[in-house]
Specification:
alpha/beta; 35% helix; D-Maltodextrin-Binding Protein, domain 2; 14 helices
């Protein structure tokens, strides 16, 4: 079992060229030029609590949404699955979270559009953790044990299934248990013995280590899921078609937020600290994901569908759609 140590993720050293039409706010934030007036100015974005969505909070805090004529309400949710029904019923406009349940829903007949990418996996940004005094010291020790996840058929079950299979263990030999309150509640639940291990995202990996001395059993950023696409900003196809200007305005603001997140780790830590009410001790050492910049990369999302099929998170009945790339292609939004 590897011992958890607090270390900040390396600062992303990318330099990004901005459009000549950009302007600057008094605070120094560079903003994209404004497009047509949004059809709907007030929108609700449902978001899981994780560092992966830093661009969302940066766009809110830095006035990037306001610059685009949007008033955005961010609603915290425990997992992406809990928002899909509300989104299909029109109660939520956009969801910020894992691609996994959306790819599954798309295969099952729902129609979604990925508007923008949010994050990709990096070391220590997700972790399978156990308590400080756990007798489980290897992945093999998970056989017959309960593993807490924040959602059924989620990125957590996918990453852990891949990790198990690549270590010669069938995922059927563990019991995935969903915590309906999501990541914020899971460190406490693990300590209380609800499960023997838990899949956590930052900043909750660091919180679990700081609060209870929990240990990292495995980092899923390896093998088939190294640098894996994690979260994105997703709307229903119907909503995107009814509100093309609104969707485009949202994407412009998010892309500016992604640029800040990819180039300014201090801004990320500040935004996440404010959004999740974290102490400076936590925000100083949380590991940060990669924040992709630019249009949605179809090849990157295709990789997610392929791994879902490979490790059983997506049924083999959809193999042809995955192999031909038509499933993912149907989810990629046209450029705003």
């Amino acid at each position: 079992m590897s011992t958890w140590n607090f270390r900040a993720a390396p600062v992303v050293a990318a330099l990004v060229m901005f459009l000549a039409s950009c302007t600057s706010t008094p605070s120094g934030t560079t903003l994209a030029s404004v497009g047509p007036k949004p059809e709907e100015q007030d929108i609700t974005v449902a978001a899981i609590p994780a560092t992966d969505l830093a661009a969302l909070y940066l766009a809110q805090d830095e006035g990037l949404f306001a610059q685009q004529g949007l008033h955005v309400t961010i609603k915290k949710i425990p997992n992406s699955q809990s928002a899909i029904a509300a989104q299909l019923n029109g109660q939520v406009d956009i969801t910020a979270g894992s691609y996994v349940p959306y790819i599954s829903a798309q295969a099952g007949g729902a129609r979604f559009r990925i508007l923008a990418e949010a994050s990709a996996l990096r070391p220590n940004t997700r972790a399978l953790v156990v308590t400080a005094n756990s007798p489980i010291t290897t992945i093999a020790g998970l056989v017959g044990k309960k593993i807490g996840v924040n959602g059924t058929n989620s990125i957590g079950t996918l990453l852990i299934s891949a990790l198990l299979q690549e270590n010669g263990i069938s995922p059927k030999k563990v019991d995935f248990v969903t915590d309906n309150k999501g990541f914020p509640a899971m460190p406490d639940q693990l300590q209380q013995g609800q499960w023997q291990a838990a899949f956590l995202a930052e900043p909750y990996v660091t919180i679990a280590a700081e609060r209870y001395g929990d240990q990292e059993l495995a980092d899923p950023d390896q093998g088939a899921t190294v640098n894996f696409p994690m979260d994105g900003y997703i709307a229903t196809r119907a909503w995107a078609q009814r509100h093309p200007n609104t969707a485009a305005a949202f994407v412009r603001a998010i892309e500016e937020g992604q640029t800040i997140a990819a180039t300014d780790s201090t801004a990320v830590r500040t935004a996440i600290g404010k959004a999740d009410q974290l102490s400076p001790m936590v925000t100083a050492v949380i590991a940060l994901p990669d924040f992709p910049i630019g249009p949605v990369d179809e090849k990157r999302i295709q990789r997610e569908a392929t791994v879902m099929l490979q490790f059983g998170t997506l049924s083999q009945q959809y193999a042809a759609e995955v192999d031909q790339g038509t499933l993912v292609k149907s989810m990629i939004a046209p450029a705003p």
